[in-house]
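Mods, move this if it's the wrong board.
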Amino acid sequence: MSKVRPAAVAGMFYPDEPATLQQTVRRFLDQATVSGPPPRAIIAPHAGYIYSGPIAANAYHLLEARRDQIKRVVLLGPSHRVPLLGLAASSADSFATPLGDVPLDREMITRLTRLPQVKIMDEAHMMEHSLEVQLPFLQTILAEFKLVPLVVGEASADEVCEVLEQAGLSDATLIVISSDLSHYHDYTTARQMDRQTSDAIEHLQPNQLSYEDACGRIPVSGMLKLAQKLGLRAETIDLRNSGDTAGSRDQVVGYGAYVFR
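Not the wrong board. Structure tokens:
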């Protein structure tokens, strides 16, 4: 009997009714304005769709040209609820959303758990939203794919980079890093901080990212290390915050979309 990790934040971070969810994601994608060649990897935000959906869509819609090519998605996001050392993989066979079940790449997960920094820890996945909110976008954009979901706790950029290297960055593999930017500063301060963070990402400078800059700074830093090794170029394609989308400007959360080519 297959083991399914059920959706935990449907109806909170995004619609739980399948048709409404599909229409919502499709609308975000259709409204995306950024153009360019399809990326090898992306960084996308993970807040409620009303806040960060339009920003994430600007990265995801660039993958349309690779929709039949991508067969594996390696998805990393920070742990918000469960403290852990290293990276947590899942023992599930699939992850569920209202749009259906996404099969996990058990073979790749087994390979990655041979690394000392990767372990099976279902508790870290149970209520974690940073990975889940990316799935409806992936289900809408891609044809058939398998998922390698990893929740990132306390780890070094080099440890994350090693995991990404093991997973590989082939034509059939997409890396998705899930991260928001600054949290709960006023609008002007957030814009300044998030611009500096974006500069660090564009210049592949993981050492310039601090705790205050991005909740997913550790997986982002690992991706920047990988980009250095592979000669990838990072580009900011959208940079906004909740004060631009659906919130007040007194305390905002920053969102950026980035692509690696």
